[in-house]
Amino acid sequence: MTSTLPAVTTPQVPAQRQPAPEAGSTGRTAPPKRLRTSRPDLVLCVVLLMAILVVQGWNIAAYPTLSDDEGTYLAQAWAVQEGRGLAHYTYWYDHPPFGWMQIALLTWIPSLISPDSMTVGSMRAVMLVVGGISAVLVYMLGRRLSLPRWAAGLGMVLFGLSPLSVVLQREIFLDNLAVMWTLLAFTLAASPSRHLWHHFGAGIAAATAVLTKETMLFVLPAILVTMWRHSHRDTRKFAVTGAITACVLIGLSYPLFALLKGELFPGSGHVSLWDGIKYQMTRPGSGFILDQGSGSYGVLQSWLYYDRVLPLGGLAGALLLLATWRWSVTARALAGPCAAVAILALVAMRPSGYLPAMYIIQALPFLALVLAGGTASVAHAVLRKGRLHPAGRYTLAAVLALGAGAYVVPRWYDGARTAVTADANAPYRAASKWLSTEVERPEKTRVLVDDALWLDLVHAGYRPGNGVIWFYKADLDPAVTKTMPRGWRDIDYVVASPTVRRDAADLPNVKAAMEHSTPVAVFGKGEDRIEIRQIQTAGGTR
Amino acid sequence: MGIWGDLLLTSVFIAVVSLALFWMAAFTLWWQMHAWRTPEVLASTRFSRPDGGEHLSFSLLLPARHEQAVLDHTIQRLLESGHADFEIIVIVGHDDPETTEVAERAAARDPRVRVVVDTHEKKNKPKAMNTALPHCRGDVVGVFDAEDQVHPELLAHVDHAFRSTGADVVQGGVQLINFHSSWYSLRNCLEYFFWFRSRLHLHAQKGFIPLGGNTVFVRTDVLREADGWDPNCLAEDCDLGVRLSSVGKKVVVAYDSDMVTKEETPGSLMSLLKQRTRWNQGFLQVYRKKDWKQLPTFGQRLLARYTLTTPFLQAFTGLIIPLNVAIALFLDVPVSIAFITFLPAVTALVTFVFEVVGLHDFGKQYGLRVRFVHYLKLIVGGPFYQVLLAGAAIRAVWREQRGRNDWELTSHVGAHLNQADVIREDVPA
């Protein structure tokens, strides 16, 4: 039997030097060392998780409307599964491929059991796994950042049940996967054991998040802040350098991949990482977010349409925590999420930047934690610090809680009811059914569609790539345009979904196809209708 | 088969080699960073503060050979120790009158110093210490080298460590300190830092430990029971540790930067190579003696096997990693395979970064100023040091094969020799 000198906790060696507690961490209630063995935490977390899964999962295929992006990621995942490369068309370094490689992995077993289920609507189910893990991580992170149990639970509820979250987390977006990895990085960075390899793992998880969706780069400083606060003076330099090294090395695997394929730098006849990055950096800006009429303002309004509580309340929570930095222990404990919210808010305010609708996904967990932390701070101030009589304090707290509930619950109830009952995708399903049954020889037919339907048509027997054509590619991918020497005349149908109608203006071939076609079937009404348009060549249909 | 078969075979071969190297490098890194895993682990690697009670008596062995220049100073410093009950036994050779004279003078001045003369025809350190073992009167035998700078409070701490942990063996820290002397001394110092500061504690915890050559303390009865040191082993200190831990003796390691025994690196590249050859050969001998096979668990035996063969694996790794990367870049293997070939290089890079941080910590711990140029030397010197280690490993295998297991240093020891060459070859790492 041999061993090192007993650790500090062993009573045999009372004179052993105690590791000094970190400055600034005094006065915090220590979170339990192992959440796994804490029954109240487990019960609360499981109950909330069930509620979140029910609300997010019920009716997931029918609401919200299928988006072209979801279809693209899933089609790329399908290409990975089928061994067709990294995308259903030429992969051009638009995003790192790791995101849909994970989707490919998640959908692999379901697609083995039922190949036809590899469509956007049915495969949204795998996002429940991602959303569920993220929600649990929000709870764990909240606890590790010293939030009381109820506040960590509140954070989890805000993150999982806000109507905005429900809509966005149901969709097959890379951002949702990236959020999961980022939360894992935060949770590891705040590891109560302050283990070197947990911090190293945080670096790996952070790099994975960035490789899943590159916009997660913005959040990296916030992870570093969390790690700095949670590491110990004596081991910090090893932990932090280790994490940064891990993050950089894993991150470098993407350029290394491009290098190994000979596609790092631009050259004739091949795509390159350089061009991909250049494209993303020079995307036309969508204007200042507060400037009415700008694209960014529209995006902001679309978020606020679903929920005001989480985005605006979260921002207010962040401001409150920043303002009370000097006095509030909670504010300092939540430095990481606060920094994440601050950075993401500032980035969204760039007047020249491009603000995609999914942008807010990466902010959701931090908005939720910061709002929960702000609430905990207010609760603490009301219950513990005020000069009021105890009965008065509790009355005040109850009034505040009831007021907040009265504002939030009806709105969220409406949001949740829409999410579990609305059917936004009937037109898509009908269009898919029509093209599967009404077209006689799908293998000989060429259709322009948006990606939300692409896999449906592949399963219906259309040739992937040049038979069923993702409409952008009819103008932008030389490999596809080469097969259309006569332009729109080489196409048989256009499925004019809202996305196709919106973007056709900038795509000559698609625009011409729209102009030289007539609807043969229309599903839905108004803006959201889907038309199946047959091309009219001069000598009649081919 | 054809070209595809060849490519497949190459790919599989490269992948297997890369993964093996990766796991080896990853485990080594994992162990090297043991002490910094958590703040609690780091705190537990230190000596606990003595309680003031001193109940053990010490016999401190001080083998000295042609070391008349430094011996007296070392004895004086040992005598300044705050501990109440110890004796110093200086072991000198019968053919070394200069050192004997210094030792006799010290003995005349202070009754706590005694001199034992080693009359073996062929001399080495284990023989010298075995000669002195019957003369030891203390409860605990401690070993120092003639040029060691020993901290006056060390004995009190060791005394406390024995009593508070019930240990049979206490290994204190040894640290090379002259990192600024040359590019290789920089790396040599850092090797000691990672070994005594971190890795050795893991070995103690796992129950398999190759001991160091000095600042090591063993209960006298345990040492006698084990028949002292193996006079035919080139790494007698490592061997003792392996034998004691294999029969379940409790070993405790403690490292305190104020309390370490400070030493200097070998004076020349050649003497470093010779020293390293001897250790490697010694490790090989210990491996072949198979005492470690008595270890009770499979994991311990695996650790023993791995640790004792590390010098050779290390040599192999150092040569294979660059080759592997070259294959990935220039041979037309699939991208996934190419990725796997980078894994060992990635681990090596992480190790590199931790070494840089280790150098910073080393400077902080010892209040030494580490300049930018030292970090540069550390990085640039890395590959060359690998070559040196590989050379020593190959040399060790070659010498062992040819049955040359004499102590290389005894063959060239002479009065003319710079003593730095003599004294610094006795510390295993």
UniProtKB/TrEMBL annotation, chain A:
The keyword Cell membrane applies. The chain crosses the membrane at residues 42-61, 97-113, 125-141, 147-166, 173-190, 202-226, 238-257, 309-327, 334-353, 359-382, 394-413. Residues 95-258 form the ArnT-like N-terminal domain. Pfam families: PMT (PF02366). InterPro entries: ArnT-like_N, LipidA_mod_glycosyltrf_83. It is found in: Cell membrane. GO terms for biological process: lipopolysaccharide biosynthetic process; protein O-linked glycosylation. Keywords: Cell membrane, Glycosyltransferase, Membrane, Transferase, Transmembrane, Transmembrane helix. The keyword Magnesium does not apply. It is a multi-pass membrane protein. One of its GO terms (cellular component) is plasma membrane. GO terms for molecular function: mannosyltransferase activity; pentosyltransferase activity. Residues 1-35 are annotated as: Disordered. Residues 1-15 have a biased composition (Polar residues). This is Glycosyltransferase family 39 protein.
